Structure to design on (593 residues):
């Protein structure tokens, strides 16, 4: 039964690549654009470390691992989830969910994943390369298991953030307008771009639980350097599971309020 | 197969006065009105039956279809499709229904239809043999076999609708909702879609609910119709009974002998019924059904008649009257 979804996803990938090849300019422009973004992000922390040796308790090398993890997650988000999530409110308002709701398949799965951004795929490979580079250049050996756990947690963090993005847009079912919600999402997502350790304790608690932006890269990096414990892994899994459950519940509430659009 | 009991749907709509001032006022104090789109409708549809759902714009046809397809939740009432509540969206039901909306596309714009069908095969878990047989048969009957590998956006509207039909029917649905499937199509494409639906329905006997603004669709495909007005059912019965029940008049037409220099006096004809046409060649009147014989006799005796015909009112006109006028008689 669950095997259906990977098979469906392979179809989405196939369709996405077929379409992306038709738009060559966009295909290459996105690569250039994202590389510039990666350089600026690293340069930002490089400049900060010209004035300090530690930031939130992290050295420049540790921050580079965090930044590489964030960039990797961002590339996954941009490639796998962002296009579907971007169109989400428009589909709700224009009544375009209709056909998704009559199909015997999870509507939230199709809506968030059907638009694989094939033109970002090379960026995903580049981001993975950057992550390997940041880990390899770290002065001390990190060990295979901690790195593997780190990568898995970054991946879970990315899914968690994507679900949060969906949750921010689900109120469109009731509010119709979505620009404010989208801006709020961008504002909240800013917390994922900095190490959570730089914030006061109460903000850390929020970004690690209710709005778990720190789970994207900051918390996995922190665990990588502070040590893996069952409690820390348990925290990530608990927040991830809670976010999945909440999103599905919220989505079903939204669908109850869905009014489609006049024909 | 489909049972609907006192199904209602109310939408909450914001009312805003026009202009910038109206926008500012609505920002502070918003007026919400309730619009009852569907009002306690009850009906049932059996296997192999095609029911035409008719109504003016905003009468609630599409809302009924969307509730029965499980797209929107009702405000009250019950419905059962193949034993399931449609808005609970049980996959066992969704595998047995199909929806085609003439105004919305389900196929991926940039891909050939054949690719979209492969995805649907996976979604509906159709085994390869049945899929290939169905695709071959449907594309042959609809005459689009050569277009399966053409990108959907390069197809004409008629060809696209045929692909939409294939997409909807690949999994052999037992219940089919057709929401204005011929809208915007030229006459020949409309006819071709109608003929296909008719032959498909004869062969597979699904329960079909059809909404359409084109009377030709309804007359061609539906024996039974349900007419909605302002969300409520005003008629549910056989199409042939509409005339008997709602047409209060018949059309009496006479052709006159050549040579007359002036048209007959309409003042005298007015007493027989409503004059539709009056010329040197022809007179046409709407005459109350009970007075047809007397009116015909009067015309025969007072005018130089060479031919007389008594016609039923056009069923489309009668239905249009039912849809728009309280009482509905024409």
């Amino acid at each position: 039964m669950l095997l259906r979804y990977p098979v469906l996803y392979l179809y989405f990938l196939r369709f996405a690549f077929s379409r992306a090849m038709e738009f060559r300019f966009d295909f290459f422009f996105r690569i250039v654009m994202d590389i510039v973004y990666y350089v600026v992000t690293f340069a930002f922390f490089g400049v900060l470390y010209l004035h300090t040796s530690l930031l939130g308790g992290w050295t420049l090398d540790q921050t580079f691992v965090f930044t590489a993890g964030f960039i990797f997650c961002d590339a996954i988000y941009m490639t796998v989830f962002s296009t579907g999530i971007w169109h989400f409110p428009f589909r709700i308002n224009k009544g375009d969910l209709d056909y998704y709701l009559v199909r015997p398949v999870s509507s939230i799965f199709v809506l968030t994943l059907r638009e694989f951004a094939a033109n970002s795929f090379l960026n995903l490979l580049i981001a993975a390369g950057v992550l390997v580079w940041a880990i390899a250049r770290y002065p001390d050996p990190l060990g295979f298991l901690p790195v593997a756990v780190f990568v898995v947690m970054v991946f879970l963090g990315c899914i968690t953030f994507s679900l949060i993005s969906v949750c921010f847009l689900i109120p469109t079912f009731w509010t119709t307008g979505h620009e404010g919600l989208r801006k709020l999402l961008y504002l909240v997502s800013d917390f994922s771009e900095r190490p959570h350790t730089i914030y006061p304790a109460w903000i850390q608690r929020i970004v690690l639980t209710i709005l778990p932006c720190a789970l994207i890269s900051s918390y996995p990096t922190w665990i990588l350097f502070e040590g893996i414990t069952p409690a820390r892994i348990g925290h990530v899994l608990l927040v991830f599971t809670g976010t999945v459950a909440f999103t599905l519940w919220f989505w079903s509430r939204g669908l109850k309020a869905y009014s489609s659009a006049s024909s | 197969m489909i049972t609907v009991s006192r199904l209602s749907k109310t939408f909450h709509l914001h009312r805003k006065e026009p202009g910038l001032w109206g926008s500012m006022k609505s920002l502070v104090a918003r007026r919400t009105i309730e619009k009852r789109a569907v009002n306690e409708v009850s009906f049932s549809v059996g296997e192999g039956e095609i029911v035409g759902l008719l109504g003016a714009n905003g009468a609630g046809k599409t809302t009924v279809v969307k509730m029965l397809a499980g797209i929107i939740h009702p405000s009250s009432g019950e419905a059962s499709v193949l034993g399931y509540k449609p808005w609970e969206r049980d996959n066992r039901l969704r595998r047995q229904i199909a929806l085609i909306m003439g105004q919305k596309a389900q196929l991926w714009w940039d891909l050939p239809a054949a690719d979209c069908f492969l995805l649907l095969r996976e979604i509906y878990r159709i085994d390869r043999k049945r899929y290939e047989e169905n695709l071959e048969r449907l594309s042959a009957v609809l005459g689009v076999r050569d277009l399966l590998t053409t990108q959907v956006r390069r197809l004409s509207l008629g060809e696209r609708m045929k692909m939409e039909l294939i997409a909807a029917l690949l999994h052999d649905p037992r219940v089919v909702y057709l929401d204005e499937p011929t809208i915007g199509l030229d006459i020949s494409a409309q006819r071709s879609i109608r003929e296909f639906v008719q032959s498909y329905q004869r062969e597979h006997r699904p329960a079909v609910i059809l909404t359409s603004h084109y009377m030709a669709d309804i007359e061609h495909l539906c024996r039974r119709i349900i007419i909605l007005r302002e969300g409520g059912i005003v008629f549910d019965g056989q199409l042939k009974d509409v005339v008997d029940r709602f047409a209060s008049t018949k059309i009496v037409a006479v052709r006159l002998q050549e040579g007359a220099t002036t048209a007959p006096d309409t003042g005298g004809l007015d007493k027989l019924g409503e004059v539709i046409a009056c010329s040197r060649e022809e007179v046409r009147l709407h005459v109350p059904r009970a007075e047809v014989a007397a009116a015909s006799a009067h015309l025969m005796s007072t005018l130089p008649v060479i031919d007389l015909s008594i016609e039923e009112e056009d069923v489309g006109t009668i239905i249009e009257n039912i849809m728009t006028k309280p009482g509905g008689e024409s």
About this structure: The radius of gyration of chain A is 19 Å. Residues 4-257 of chain A form one domain.
